[in-house]
Amino acid sequence: MKLKFWQRNVDTDGDMSEEDELSGGDNLPEDEAREFEMPPGHHLSLGTRLRAKWEGYDDPVEYYLLQLEIDVYADWLRKMRIWLARPVEPELGELDLDDEIGRWPPERIRLYDKLFDHGIMIPGGHEYALELAKPLALDETLSCVEIGAKLGGVARLLADRLGVWVTAFERDGELALLGMERSVQTGVQKKVPVQTFDPLQPELRKSYFNVVYSYGELYKIPEKTTFLAALAATLRDQGQILLTDYVLTRDLDESELAEWAKLEDEELFPWTAQEYKSRLGALKFDIRIAKDESETHLKHIKLAWAEMLSDIQKSGLDPDLMDYLVPEMEMWMNRVKMLENGSLAFYRFYATIN
What we know:
Shape: globular
Strand content: 5-15%
Mean pLDDT: 83
Oligomer: single chain
Largest sheet: 7 strands, mixed
Helix content: 40-55%
Radius of gyration: 22 Å
Strand order of the largest sheet: 3-2-1-4-5-7-6
Structural class: alpha/beta
Low-confidence stretches: 1-34, 86-101
Number of domains: 2
Order of helices and strands: HHHHHHEHEHEEHEHHEHHE
């Protein structure tokens, strides 16, 4: 039987008892027993059971099998990367191809469309994007600005579901262009324009927007003190700000920060959660939510990659995606490692301006 990571096994009331969870379902009646089975010779440790419960798995065997598959595919991807790196004599006409491809060729975009919900380049996809936006009470009377919009998928989702108008700003000119093309294709170029911006000179209109939001992108913004001041200035009276971001939980040495930046392929400027709180307070924001969302974020990342790897197992690997699959997986797994070892946390901040 194929393992389906998105399935969860629960009893008729939707819950398992604590005893049943820690036993892996061994105490349940036969008709309610788990559908996942341990491989011969494998055993669940208490640590694995507790970790599975902590991460929200009803059946610790499912969690254990997921980790086994991730380990197997990580090893397979490592071997494939070595194989792809073998010396190959290039054919004529191929030598200049890389010069014509930017950071976001179609294959890399397709990888993200498969990894997360189509057009939503954040873990959790549509559902989580809408969940985060709930405190904003968005409707057609409000105008928003998004920072770090990528392809503008979140902005188009909010406009479609909630009627709000969103100006989507993205630093990467190539992504902004591709995002604007998608807005044009769906006929929302006026309601959801995707534009480039310079974080050092954002040129935001004063007292113009009702809401500013950013989903996990501000750790890449330099001079954040000045930038947050510009965001505050663009808000009208009773304006709202919603941010999620990676924050430091300890000081990183130069080599750690350099390794993280290398995998992200850009310079990074992370803050601590306390720096965010202090700066938002200094800008006269009333902070309503400052919450560590690391566990939820980790679950979303792992589920997305588990489903991606399961799809590869069932359907095979698209060779055109291989060059982008390995570095993207390394980047996301490094984020997982830093979140799990306590170097980083993923925080949500929601505040209103006084």
